[in-house]
Amino acid sequence: MAELHKFLFEGLPVRGMLVRLTDAWQTVLARRAQNPQTGAYPPELVSTLGEMAAAAVLFQSNIKFDGALVLQLQGDGPLKLAVVEVQPDLQFRATAKVIGSVEGLTGLSALANPGGTGRCAITLDPARRLPGQQPYQGMVPLHGDRGEPIDRVQDVLAHYMLQSEQLDTTLVLAANSEVAAGLLIQRLPMQGEVNLAGRQLVVDEDQIGRNEDYNRIALLAASLKTEELLTLQADDILHRLFWEEPVLRFEPLMGDEGPRFACRCSRERVSSMLRSLGPEESQAALAERGKVEVGCDFCGQQYRFDAVDVAQLFAQGNGQIQSSPDAWQ
Length: 329
Ligand SMILES: [Zn+2]
Prior knowledge:
With about 325 residues, the chain is α+β, with helices and mostly antiparallel strands. Helix content is about 35%, strand content about 25%.
C-alpha cells in the first residue's frame, strides 16, 4: 500500500518525509500499458516518471498547498514532457510524452536535455483562484549553473529547492516498475523565511549550508542506496539511517488518507475543451472518422462523441467559449 511517513528531529531544525508508492504507482503504469494509443512506458522512462511522482507527493505534503502542485519536465530530447499533478489530499496522476526512441538512453541529459533547453517547473495552482490571479511557477534548467549536466531527477530538484526556495533540502529518489519512493530531509525555515508560495521574502542566506545538525542528517540521508530505498520498508530505512538521532515520528498516511492514484478527467472537461477548440475541429474529425475520440493522457479513459453529441456540444454552449485550466487535458 502506498504510504507517507512524516517525522522530525526533536530539538533540531530539521524535518523529513518518506514516501513509498506501490499499488498506486503500479496503477499508473498498468493504465498506460493498457492504453492502445500509447502502449507501455519504455523502461528508460519508468524511473524518471516514478521519481517525479514520489518527489511531487513529498513536495505537496511538505507545503500543504490548497490547490494542485504540478511538477513538470519539458525536454528537447525524445522526452518532450513529463507531468505529475498532486492534489492537497495526495491524490495524484502522472503522464509523459515521448517522441522517437529512447532505447538505451539513461539519465535526464540524454532523455530531455540534449539541446540544453530542457526545463523543470513546479506550478502551484490555487484551488480557489481570485480574479486575475495567476498560478505561481518556479523553473530551473536541467543543467547546473555552469552548464554541467544533471542526470538525476533528485539533483534537478535539489537545485530547484536551493535556487527558488532557498532552503537546504536533500532528496533521495528511486523508482522501478514496482515502487516509486523518496526521502526528503529539509532544514526548517527560520521565521520569516521564504516558502514555496513565494510569501514573506526575508531570507537568512547565511544559514544555507551552514547548519551543523542539518548537514549531519543530510549526509546520513544521502548514504541511502537506491536498492535500499526500493526494497526496504519505511521502518527499516529510518532505523538504518537515523538510529542515533532523536527521530519523532507521526502517524503514517496510507489508504484513503495516503497518496493514491486518481484522475480528474471527465466528459464535461473534455466537452469544454472541444468547445474551446471551435466546431471546425470536431466537424473535421466527424467527417474523417464518423466520431470524435479524445483519450485522457493520464488514465487512458477514452471519450467518444458521435454526430449527435457534437451537435449538442455546440448547441448548448451558444458559442460560449470555456477554456479549461488544464492545458494538457
Ligand atoms: Zn483521466
